[in-house]
Write a structure and sequence with these properties.
The chain is of the alpha+beta class. Among the domains are: about 60 residues, no CATH class; about 230 residues, Neurolysin, domain 3, CATH 1.10.1370.10; about 180 residues, Collagenase (Catalytic Domain). It contains 27 helices and eleven strands. Strands 5-6-7-11-8 form a five-stranded mixed sheet, with helices on one face. A three-stranded antiparallel sheet has the order 1-10-9, with no helix packed on it. A three-stranded antiparallel sheet has the order 2-4-3. Helix 1 runs antiparallel to helix 2 and helix 4 packs antiparallel against helix 7. The chain is globular, with a radius of gyration of 25 Å. The two termini are about 25 Å apart.
Length: about 675
């Protein structure tokens, strides 16, 4: 889940929401018009944003002034939570169009609104009166959910300096605001990067036709765009080693030195904040509210898996080096050779051509098939709403109903194709978190999935790689988490869980994309309509773990780097630290002269000292999948239990309790080690 809402900042407690006025009643037929306007002008964004923020601040001032008289949970913390949710309801389009609109003026106005919204969240969390109310709310709570709400508000207040002196509190608030400005500038440095490399007509011959739209021609010759979308197809197919090297060096320099300096500055500010807030370092500050709780626990898992996967990774590289020599190239295997020869290995050992697999995965087959699988598994029904009321013409909108009762559950949007100005990251995002309204009705949630799949060209359908299909299944799992939850309070809804658990449900669901019966369901050969043949599926499954050693070695090295980066108390050079740790915890030597810290989206957008969470969550994901393996991966009874015991509670119950309820036991590491080919029955 690459972003937890467009305006996610780790210290801000506010729950995302939107689509004001959509209220659930049994038997309702949902309309496409959810009450939000996606066609706001820049001036309208600015005016409505200011009005909503002014109203929220006035409401908080009223609560602050009457704090001593709050006699119930609802009149105190409950009222604060309502202000949060009401504000988000009012600003759903205003704070999300920065990621979605092709109009730069709209994006700029949306960015300004998002900044104001984030600033309000920091102010609220740092308000000493709000902290006092939150601390007192635990004694007034009449349910476990109210206890949990009081807990997370209290955590947020203490973590943003609400308990400090006014002078220190002002410093903390100013530093958090500075971090937000760094995030904006850093993301802009990535999104506005237009790196390209010169290529010859000869070098282009081996590339897939899908890359044709990424080639530009001018008086200086031909140029290939260097970005996330072109990386894999270029590095896997370019036969020219020199071209691959040019591409990788350009890719590793994206964002530039300016972004490196921004990240270094962010790390310095985080260290200052940790000291002010009573923590030894930023990593300790971040993990204090995670499942792992301590840096030592997170490091123990990361380093254990790193050390266990490095030998496997080195063996994989040795095999690729043999393949390279057999092809007549005696030079040492370098980082820019890896993707190409890994692709060659898959083709030679497994007789599997990824491009042939792609021809079986047209978008117009994969999307409805995946939606069908989710409907069957989770006992829900989706209904496409046409025409969609959304932010762009090619966005699809769906209503969600409980399949058994017919009760409306929420909405989701699929924004799958690229366009100018749209965020380049594949992600899912909460647009609105559900909650109980004052009249007792339920305000329905909504979520969106954002992709940048290739557009169809010249009458040919858009085709997905198997990896992209897996990614779709994963991200749609987040959409379900963000719509099928049912909590009283928006701040406890859906994916508002401990951050090192949030990926686990969707990581578990990736397993479906390796089941032969599922692969047949989602596939349809262009021209014939035939599903993936059994022999090709067998090859795909057999090739699943090719390269696992390298992949997990890099993931664990990167997680280790992320934690080490945020253990520093003084100034640090992010690139120098990256190269130092890479030399001992990864299989390729550092590419000196590049700027890896210039394009580290996670370290700036809320996953700082948290990247380990992908690995941490995968342990839980594989153990949850073992329940489906025993009960049947297409068994709706197991799926409904998963929905009710993992998705429905959202953040109202701590993840370790959710897991025990679903598993019926404590968590085991064995399914995870089996996944990565390092089964160890002693690792329980």
């Amino acid at each position: 889940m690459e972003r937890r809402g467009a305006q996610h900042v780790a210290v801000v407690l506010l729950a995302l929401a939107g689509l004001h006025g959509t209220i659930a009643h049994a038997g309702d037929k949902l309309s496409a018009d959810t009450g939000v306007s996606w066609s706001l002008t820049p001036d309208q964004i600015t005016a409505t944003c200011k009005s909503a923020l002014d109203k929220a601040r006035a409401a908080i001032r009223d609560i602050d002034s009457g704090a001593g008289t709050a006699a119930t949970f609802d009149s105190g913390l409950g009222a604060i939570e309502t202000v949060n949710a009401d504000l988000s309801d009012a600003l759903i389009a205003q704070i999300n169009l920065v990621q979605l609109s092709p109009d730069k003026a709209v994006r700029d106005a949306s960015q300004a609104c998002q900044d104001g919204y984030t600033a309000f969240g920091v102010e609220l969390a740092a308000d000493p009166v709000i902290l006092k109310i939150s601390e007192g709310a635990a004694a007034l709570a009449q349910s476990a959910e109210q206890q949990q709400l009081a807990k997370i508000y209290t955590e947020a207040g203490r973590r943003t300096g609400a308990g400090l002196s006014s002078a220190k509190r002002a410093t903390v608030t100013q530093l958090f605001e500075e971090l937000n400005k760094i995030m904006v500038a850093y993301n802009r440095g990535i999104s506005e990067d237009v790196s390209q490399i010169p290529v010859s007509a000869e070098e282009l011959k081996s590339l897939p036709a899908a890359l044709a739209g990424s080639v530009r021609s001018d008086s200086a010759g031909l140029h290939m765009a260097v970005n996330e979308g072109t990386y894999h197809p270029f590095m896997s197919h370019a036969t020219s080693r020199a071209a691959r090297k040019r591409f990788l060096y350009a890719y590793q320099r994206r964002g530039g030195l300016h972004n490196v300096e921004l990240l270094a500055h962010a790390v310095k500010i985080r260290a200052q904040l940790a000291a002010l807030l009573g923590f030894p370092n930023w990593a300790a500050y971040q993990l204090d509210v995670k499942m792992a709780k301590t840096v030592q626990k997170a490091l123990a898992l990361v380093l254990e898996v790193n050390q266990r996967t490095l030998p496997k990774a080195r063996a994989e590289l040795a095999e690729l080096a043999k393949l390279k020599r057999a092809a007549g190239d005696a030079t040492a295997l370098a980082a820019w050779d890896y993707s190409y020869y890994e692709d060659q290995l898959v083709k030679s050992r497994f007789a599997l051509d990824p491009e042939e697999v792609r021809s079986y995965l047209p978008i117009d087959k994969v999307v409805p098939a995946v939606l069908g699988i989710y409907q069957h598994l989770l006992d829900v029904r989706f209904e496409q709403l046409t025409p969609a009321v959304a932010w762009a013409p090619d966005v699809s909108e769906y209503a969600i109903y409980d399949a058994t009762s017919g009760a409306p559950l929420g909405y989701f949007y699929l924004d799958l194709l690229p366009r100018d100005g749209k965020t380049s990251h594949t992600s899912s995002s909460a647009l609105r978190n559900g909650r109980v309204l004052a009249d007792g009705s339920y305000s329905l949630p909504a979520a969106a999935m954002i992709c940048n799949w290739p557009r169809p060209q010249a009458g040919k359908p858009s085709l997905l790689s198997h990896g992209e299909a897996i990614e779709f299944f994963h991200e749609f799992g987040h959409v379900m988490h963000g719509t099928l939850s049912r909590t009283r309070y928006a701040s406890l809804f859906g994916t508002q869980v401990r951050e090192d658990f949030v990926e686990a449900p969707s990581q578990m669901l990736e397993n479906w994309m390796w089941q032969p019966e599922v692969l047949k369901q989602i596939s349809s050969k262009v021209g014939t309509g035939e599903p993936l043949p059994d022999d090709m599926i067998a090859k795909m499954v057999a090739a699943k773990h090719a390269g696992d050693g390298v992949a997990y070695a890099f993931q664990t090295f990167y997680a280790y780097y992320d934690l080490e980066l945020h253990l520093h108390k003084g100034p640090v050079d992010p690139d120098a630290l990256f190269f130092k740790l890479e030399a001992s915890h990864y299989v390729f030597p550092p590419m000196l002269g590049t700027y890896p810290a210039g394009d580290m989206w996670h370290q700036v957008n809320g996953y700082d000292a948290g990247y380990y969470g992908y690995l941490w969550a995968l342990v839980y994901a594989q153990d949850m999948f073992s329940v489906f393996q025993k009960g049947g991966i297409d068994n709706p009874a197991v799926g409904l239990r998963y929905r009710n015991e993992i998705l429905v509670p959202g953040g109202s119950v701590e993840p370790d309790v959710l897991l025990r309820n679903f598993l019926g036991r404590e968590v085991s590491l064995e399914p995870f080690y089996r996944l990565i080919g390092l089964s160890d029955t002693k690792a329980q």
